[in-house]
Amino acid sequence: MSLDFHNVLTCFLVLFVAVDPPGIIPVVIKLQHKVGDIQALKASLIAGAIMILFLFIGEEILSLVGVDIYSFAVAGSLILFFLALEMILGVEIYKFAEYKSVALVPLAFPMIAGTGSLTLILSLHSQYRMEEIAVAILLNVLLMYVTLESSKWLGKFLGRVVIDNLQKIFGVILLAIAVKIFINSIKLIG
Q1: Which is nearest to 171 in space by CA: 24, 18, 1?
Q2: pLDDT of 111
Q3: Among 55, 60, 133, 167, which residue has the fewest nearby CB atoms (within 10 Å)?
Q4: What's the mean pLDDT in 5-18?
Q5: How far apart are the C-alpha atoms of 86 and 99, rounded to whole Å?
Q6: CA angle at residue 89 from 180 to 16, to 5 degrees?
Q7: How far apart are CA 12 and CA 106, in angstroms?
Q8: For residues 134-160, average pLDDT
């Protein structure tokens, strides 16, 4: 059976909004200033693997550990909430300098393969074929890799003042997303 490219495009665009490559740039630049190399390829591959794995066995993994998708979303929203506070207030909550890599946390999860995109993957699964969603995931991962690789150049091009202001703006957006995920998930739990 061949792929329906209209469905692939639809899945790609829906996931693009959740993954949000342009919105991640200020966060990535902030992380680069803290730890240096962010390992764009590693972060992209890990995020892609998490999303593909979640496509095929996400619900089973969560039910195995006794966690529903909404509780998972609440936990991820809290991580995003504190990351947003860092961006807005200019304080350090997460001590990334202690880690050799930020490729897994917070880049691959929860920023790229976050609770929003993982929940969305499960929702898409009810309407589209796994192959179509998998191709859409791979296209988003490729786009995210390009974004991560170009973030250092963008940081130099835009300058520190612009990046600081963008970081605060995207921090507020990230905070709003975290609150929305939290509220919606709490409503669905109760």
Answers
A1: 24
A2: 81
A3: 60
A4: 89
A5: 17
A6: 40
A7: 22
A8: 90
Give the whole-angstrom CA distance, residue 22 versus residue 26. 9
Banded pLDDT at 16 (limits 50, 70, 90): confident
Cα torsion angle, 53, 59, 63, 65, sign: positive
Give the CB-side neighbour count of residue 131, counting CA atoms within 13 A. 6
> Which structural domain range is residue 108 located in?
5-189
SS3 132: helix
- What is the token pair recorded at 107? 């880049």
CA distance 130 to 177: 27
User: For the chain, how many structural domains are there in total?
Assistant: 1
Rounded to two decimals, what is the model's pTM? Answer: 0.74
Q: Which residues 6+ apart lie within 8 Å of 180 measured at CB? A: none
Q: Is 115 left (phi over 0), alpha (psi -120 to 50) or beta?
A: alpha
77 within 8 A of 115, measured Cβ to Cβ: yes
Contact, 134 vs 55, CB < 8 A?
A: yes
What was the pLDDT predicted at 98? 55
26's tokens: 């200020």
Counting beta carbons within 10 angstroms of the beta carbon of residue 105, is it exposed (0 to 12), middle (13 to 18) or buried (19 or more)?
middle
Give the closest residue to 39 by CA, choosing from 117, 96, 1, 95.
96
How many Å apart are CA 145 and CA 180, to the nearest integer? 27
- What lies within 8 Å, CB to CB, of 60 at 6+ separation is none
